[in-house]
Amino acid sequence: MSAPVVLVPGLGLGPESYAPTVEHLSLPYQVVTLPGYGEPADDRDDLHPGALAARLEQKVRERSVLVGHSAGAQIVVELAVAHPELVHALVLIAPTGDAGTVTWPTLAMRWLESTLPETPRLIPVLAPQYARTTFRAIARAAEACRRHDMAGVITRVQAPVIIVRCRYDHLSPADWVLRLAELTHGEARTLETGSHMPVLTNGPEVAALIQRAAAARPGD
Predict the structure, then answer these.
(1) Is residue 25 within 8 Å of 16, Cβ to Cβ?
(2) In 3-state terms, what secondary structure has residue 8?
(3) Fold that domain 5-215 belongs to in CATH
(4) Is residue 100 scored above 80 in pLDDT?
(5) Is the pLDDT of residue 219 over 60?
(6) Using an 8 Å Cβ cutoff, are 200 and 125 in contact?
Protein backbone atom coordinates (compact mmCIF):
# COMPACT_ATOMS: atom_id res chain seq x y z
CA MET A 1 0.00 0.00 0.00
CA SER A 2 1.38 3.41 -1.00
CA ALA A 3 1.85 6.18 1.55
CA PRO A 4 -0.24 9.37 1.22
CA VAL A 5 1.40 12.57 0.05
CA VAL A 6 1.71 16.01 1.69
CA LEU A 7 2.88 18.82 -0.59
CA VAL A 8 4.24 22.20 0.53
CA PRO A 9 4.40 24.95 -2.13
CA GLY A 10 7.37 27.15 -2.83
CA LEU A 11 7.81 30.69 -1.55
CA GLY A 12 4.71 32.76 -2.35
CA LEU A 13 2.99 29.93 -4.18
CA GLY A 14 -0.30 28.21 -3.45
CA PRO A 15 -2.07 24.93 -4.28
CA GLU A 16 -2.37 25.93 -7.94
CA SER A 17 1.38 25.54 -8.34
CA TYR A 18 1.01 21.78 -7.89
CA ALA A 19 -1.96 21.37 -10.26
CA PRO A 20 0.06 20.02 -13.25
CA THR A 21 1.72 17.53 -10.89
CA VAL A 22 -1.16 16.24 -8.76
CA GLU A 23 -3.34 15.54 -11.79
CA HIS A 24 -0.95 12.67 -12.47
CA LEU A 25 -1.01 11.27 -8.91
CA SER A 26 -3.14 8.21 -8.26
CA LEU A 27 -2.94 8.27 -4.46
CA PRO A 28 -4.29 10.47 -1.65
CA TYR A 29 -2.65 13.87 -1.28
CA GLN A 30 -3.09 17.25 0.37
CA VAL A 31 -1.42 20.56 -0.43
CA VAL A 32 -0.63 22.45 2.78
CA THR A 33 -0.24 26.22 2.56
CA LEU A 34 1.57 28.20 5.25
CA PRO A 35 2.29 31.88 5.96
CA GLY A 36 4.52 33.09 3.15
CA TYR A 37 3.79 29.91 1.22
CA GLY A 38 0.31 30.46 -0.16
CA GLU A 39 -1.03 32.41 2.81
CA PRO A 40 -0.43 36.00 3.96
CA ALA A 41 1.55 36.37 7.17
CA ASP A 42 0.71 38.21 10.35
CA ASP A 43 3.47 40.43 11.74
CA ARG A 44 3.73 38.06 14.70
CA ASP A 45 4.21 34.95 12.53
CA ASP A 46 7.61 33.29 12.75
CA LEU A 47 8.48 32.45 9.14
CA HIS A 48 11.69 30.52 9.74
CA PRO A 49 11.59 26.98 8.27
CA GLY A 50 11.70 25.33 11.69
CA ALA A 51 8.73 27.34 12.97
CA LEU A 52 6.72 26.64 9.83
CA ALA A 53 7.56 22.95 10.14
CA ALA A 54 5.85 22.99 13.54
CA ARG A 55 2.72 24.36 11.86
CA LEU A 56 2.97 21.75 9.14
CA GLU A 57 3.22 18.97 11.74
CA GLN A 58 -0.27 19.86 12.97
CA LYS A 59 -1.67 19.07 9.51
CA VAL A 60 0.12 15.78 8.80
CA ARG A 61 -2.31 13.09 9.95
CA GLU A 62 -0.23 9.97 9.25
CA ARG A 63 3.11 8.73 7.97
CA SER A 64 3.42 10.38 4.55
CA VAL A 65 5.64 11.28 1.65
CA LEU A 66 6.58 14.91 2.32
CA VAL A 67 7.10 16.97 -0.82
CA GLY A 68 8.57 20.46 -0.76
CA HIS A 69 9.19 22.80 -3.69
CA SER A 70 11.98 25.42 -3.60
CA ALA A 71 12.08 27.00 -0.11
CA GLY A 72 9.23 24.68 0.85
CA ALA A 73 11.83 21.90 0.77
CA GLN A 74 13.53 23.51 3.77
CA ILE A 75 10.28 23.23 5.73
CA VAL A 76 9.69 19.54 5.02
CA VAL A 77 13.31 18.73 5.88
CA GLU A 78 12.87 20.44 9.24
CA LEU A 79 9.72 18.39 9.88
CA ALA A 80 11.49 15.18 8.88
CA VAL A 81 14.17 15.87 11.48
CA ALA A 82 11.75 16.90 14.24
CA HIS A 83 9.19 14.14 13.61
CA PRO A 84 10.72 11.21 11.73
CA GLU A 85 7.70 9.08 12.61
CA LEU A 86 5.61 11.16 10.20
CA VAL A 87 7.90 10.67 7.20
CA HIS A 88 7.77 7.75 4.77
CA ALA A 89 10.06 9.56 2.30
CA LEU A 90 11.07 13.04 1.21
CA VAL A 91 10.81 14.43 -2.31
CA LEU A 92 12.64 17.74 -2.62
CA ILE A 93 11.83 19.67 -5.79
CA ALA A 94 14.31 22.39 -6.83
CA PRO A 95 15.42 22.79 -3.19
CA THR A 96 17.03 26.01 -1.99
CA GLY A 97 18.97 26.58 1.23
CA ASP A 98 22.59 26.69 0.11
CA ALA A 99 24.24 28.80 2.81
CA GLY A 100 26.91 29.78 0.30
CA THR A 101 24.45 31.83 -1.76
CA VAL A 102 22.76 33.90 0.95
CA THR A 103 23.66 37.38 -0.34
CA TRP A 104 20.85 39.21 -2.05
CA PRO A 105 22.93 40.07 -5.17
CA THR A 106 23.78 36.38 -5.65
CA LEU A 107 20.18 35.31 -5.14
CA ALA A 108 18.91 38.04 -7.48
CA MET A 109 21.29 36.96 -10.23
CA ARG A 110 20.38 33.30 -9.85
CA TRP A 111 16.68 34.19 -9.83
CA LEU A 112 17.08 36.16 -13.06
CA GLU A 113 19.04 33.35 -14.73
CA SER A 114 16.36 30.86 -13.70
CA THR A 115 13.45 33.07 -14.78
CA LEU A 116 14.63 33.76 -18.32
CA PRO A 117 14.14 30.17 -19.58
CA GLU A 118 10.60 29.93 -18.15
CA THR A 119 7.80 30.35 -20.62
CA PRO A 120 5.67 33.54 -20.51
CA ARG A 121 2.58 31.37 -19.96
CA LEU A 122 3.62 30.97 -16.32
CA ILE A 123 3.15 34.67 -15.56
CA PRO A 124 -0.68 34.58 -15.34
CA VAL A 125 -0.43 31.43 -13.23
CA LEU A 126 2.13 32.78 -10.77
CA ALA A 127 0.98 36.40 -10.41
CA PRO A 128 -2.33 35.69 -8.60
CA GLN A 129 -0.61 33.33 -6.18
CA TYR A 130 2.04 35.90 -5.30
CA ALA A 131 -0.63 38.59 -4.90
CA ARG A 132 -2.69 36.39 -2.56
CA THR A 133 0.31 35.57 -0.36
CA THR A 134 1.29 39.28 -0.51
CA PHE A 135 4.72 40.58 -1.40
CA ARG A 136 5.32 41.68 2.20
CA ALA A 137 4.87 38.11 3.42
CA ILE A 138 7.05 36.77 0.62
CA ALA A 139 9.84 39.23 1.46
CA ARG A 140 9.73 38.31 5.14
CA ALA A 141 9.71 34.59 4.38
CA ALA A 142 12.59 34.99 1.92
CA GLU A 143 14.66 36.75 4.57
CA ALA A 144 13.83 34.02 7.09
CA CYS A 145 14.75 31.13 4.83
CA ARG A 146 17.80 32.48 3.02
CA ARG A 147 20.09 31.84 6.00
CA HIS A 148 18.70 28.37 6.68
CA ASP A 149 21.52 25.83 6.61
CA MET A 150 19.84 23.08 4.62
CA ALA A 151 23.05 21.06 4.28
CA GLY A 152 23.55 21.07 8.02
CA VAL A 153 19.99 20.05 8.84
CA ILE A 154 19.49 17.42 6.15
CA THR A 155 22.26 15.20 7.53
CA ARG A 156 19.86 14.25 10.36
CA VAL A 157 17.11 13.03 8.02
CA GLN A 158 16.46 9.30 8.43
CA ALA A 159 13.93 8.76 5.62
CA PRO A 160 14.72 8.02 1.96
CA VAL A 161 15.27 11.18 -0.08
CA ILE A 162 14.67 11.93 -3.77
CA ILE A 163 15.86 15.30 -5.06
CA VAL A 164 14.86 16.63 -8.47
CA ARG A 165 15.78 19.77 -10.36
CA CYS A 166 15.59 21.01 -13.94
CA ARG A 167 18.46 21.60 -16.32
CA TYR A 168 18.14 25.40 -16.46
CA ASP A 169 17.58 26.02 -12.73
CA HIS A 170 20.26 28.30 -11.25
CA LEU A 171 18.52 28.66 -7.88
CA SER A 172 18.91 24.92 -7.35
CA PRO A 173 22.05 24.09 -9.36
CA ALA A 174 23.29 20.58 -10.10
CA ASP A 175 26.23 20.67 -7.70
CA TRP A 176 23.96 21.72 -4.84
CA VAL A 177 21.47 18.93 -5.53
CA LEU A 178 24.28 16.37 -5.78
CA ARG A 179 25.67 17.57 -2.48
CA LEU A 180 22.31 17.10 -0.76
CA ALA A 181 21.99 13.63 -2.27
CA GLU A 182 25.43 12.67 -1.00
CA LEU A 183 24.63 13.95 2.49
CA THR A 184 21.47 11.82 2.65
CA HIS A 185 22.61 8.84 0.53
CA GLY A 186 19.63 9.84 -1.58
CA GLU A 187 18.82 10.04 -5.27
CA ALA A 188 19.42 13.13 -7.40
CA ARG A 189 17.68 13.70 -10.73
CA THR A 190 18.06 16.48 -13.29
CA LEU A 191 15.21 16.82 -15.78
CA GLU A 192 16.25 17.84 -19.28
CA THR A 193 13.69 20.64 -19.63
CA GLY A 194 12.45 23.43 -17.41
CA SER A 195 13.93 25.72 -14.76
CA HIS A 196 12.85 26.48 -11.19
CA MET A 197 9.16 25.53 -11.55
CA PRO A 198 9.13 21.79 -12.35
CA VAL A 199 5.86 21.40 -10.43
CA LEU A 200 4.31 23.51 -13.20
CA THR A 201 6.43 22.62 -16.22
CA ASN A 202 7.33 18.97 -15.62
CA GLY A 203 4.27 17.66 -13.80
CA PRO A 204 4.21 14.08 -15.15
CA GLU A 205 7.90 13.50 -14.39
CA VAL A 206 7.63 14.95 -10.88
CA ALA A 207 4.47 12.94 -10.17
CA ALA A 208 6.21 9.74 -11.26
CA LEU A 209 9.00 10.34 -8.74
CA ILE A 210 6.49 11.04 -5.97
CA GLN A 211 4.58 7.86 -6.84
CA ARG A 212 7.79 5.85 -6.67
CA ALA A 213 8.70 7.33 -3.28
CA ALA A 214 5.22 6.53 -1.97
CA ALA A 215 5.33 2.94 -3.15
CA ALA A 216 8.80 2.16 -1.80
CA ARG A 217 9.04 -0.07 1.25
CA PRO A 218 11.32 0.86 4.17
CA GLY A 219 14.86 -0.19 3.32
CA ASP A 220 14.35 -0.12 -0.47
Answers:
(1) no
(2) strand
(3) Rossmann fold (3.40.50)
(4) no
(5) no
(6) yes
